[in-house]
Amino acid sequence: MKKKVLIGFYILIVLIGLAVFMTANGFQGKNAQAVQAGEKVYKQQCAICHGDNGKGEGANAGTSLNSQVFLSSASDDDLVNYIAEGRPEAAMPAYGPRLSKEELKNVVAFIRDWQKGEMKFDVPDPIAGNAETGEKIYKRSCIQCHGEGGAGKPKMGTVLAHPNYLKYSTDQQIWINTAYGRENTRMAPSLKGLDGVRQLSKKDISDVVAYIRSLEKEE
Which molecular function GO terms apply here (predicted)? Predict the structure, then answer.
């Protein structure tokens, strides 16, 4: 009887260890299936621009998606919207008409699998800035890459004035992107005390956010 109990105990330990190992390595049942399915779609549709590793190393122009700052600041719904709606004028096609809802969710699951943990950001609440002051800071610190009026520059900086960017980005997300940058891109951190060339205060960044938000066209 004791022998059977001991064997059962060892089996239980092995099962627990296996579960921990599988979880640590991304094997999570249905989610693992979604990741694998999403990888196939990603390689067919996205890798040419964003690269096999999602670091913007594709043959065509595409930003880095494999960024801990980006992934920690964007929800799964945000990622679905970015992919589905795209920014055609910025060379990002709208994949909503091309991919099913399941395929979109699978691609997001694959991209999300790159995330190593949840980053914490020190963001003002509320974000209150002055658009006129923000425009001056933008022209001094941002225009070189993002262009006049947020028009963007190929292989330099994304289109900040694009309606889909402004529609699907909160002020908090724009603040985080400006302050903390995005790894594997030209967008280095801007917040004072971080390792970027720009050393902007929290208020400076809030002013820049106010200016970027002012580029939003009324429908």
Answer: electron transfer activity; heme binding; iron ion binding
pTM for this prediction:
0.78
- Alpha helix stretches (DSSP H) within the chain: 2-24, 30-45, 47-50, 68-73, 76-85, 101-112, 131-141, 143-146, 163-167, 171-180, 202-214
Is 178 buried (19+), middle (13-18) or exposed (0-12) by CB count in 10 A? buried
pLDDT at 212 over 70: yes
Nearest to 57 by CA among 184, 159, 187: 184
User: Within a domain: residue 40?
Assistant: yes
User: Which residues contact residue 194 at a Cβ distance below 8 angstroms, ignoring those fewer than 6 apart?
Assistant: 179, 180, 181
Question: Which of residues 112, 142, 168 is at a domain's end?
Answer: 112
Residues 6+ away with beta carbon under 8 Å from 185: 56, 63, 64, 67
Spatial separation of the C-alpha atoms in residues 139 and 151, rounded to whole Å? 12
The enclosing domain of 51 has a CATH number of: 1.10.760.10
Dihedrals φ, ψ of 217, to 5°? -85, 135
What are the pLDDT digits (tens) for 107-125? Answer: 999 999 999 999 999 999 9
